[in-house]
Amino acid sequence: MVHEPKKGEPATDEEKLNRIYKLAVSMADQMEKSRIADYTQLLHKPWRLIWLNLLSGTARGVGIAIGFTFFAATIIYVLQVLGALNLPIIGDYIADIVRIVQRQLELSTY
Known about the structure:
The protein is built from 4 helices and no strands.
């Protein structure tokens, strides 16, 4: 049974060591959760760090390209549907945008 000191009562050496031990265990757990050892190993291998960054940058770029393609295709589809509704002012504007996009797609770049 551990005796907890009351306010104003000095802590014993055993209680001080117990608190230090709990603090050290807590810090060790936090360092383990932050994966600091993996990070320091990565810093000692710069080529692995470069490879991982290159790989993640490529994956991010491909993901952005695919996402933007789907987004643009959806917007063009919606504009075509709205253009087919023959709305007075908006329909002409949307039809012009769709024509411009289709002309750009038909042009060969090589």
